[in-house]
Amino acid sequence: MTSNKILISLATAALLVACRGSSGDAQKPAPEGRAPAKASEADEHKGHGEKDEHGGHEDEKKTSDLDRPVDDLFSSKCEHDIKTFECDECRYENGVVKAPAGLFEGQLLKKATVGKRRVEAPIGLTGEIRFDERRVAHISSQTEGVVRKVSVSLGDRVRKGQPLVEIESVSYGQAESEYLEAKATLALAQRNFDRQAELRKENITSEKEYLQAKQELEAAQIRTRTAGDKLVQLGLPPGELANLGQGGARTRLVLRAPSDGMVLVLHAVPGEVAKSEEALMTIGDLSTLWLWADLYEHDLAVVVDGQAAGGLQAAVTVKAFPGVEFPGTVDFVGPTMEESTRTVKVRIELKNPLGKLRAGMFANVKIFLPGKEEVLAAPKDAMLEDEGRAFVFVHHHDDYFVRRPVRRGKAWAGWVEIAGGLSGGETIVSDGSFLLKSDVLRSKMGAGCAD
Question: Which of 247-261, 304-318, 417-431 has the highest mean pLDDT?
Answer without folding.
Answer: 417-431
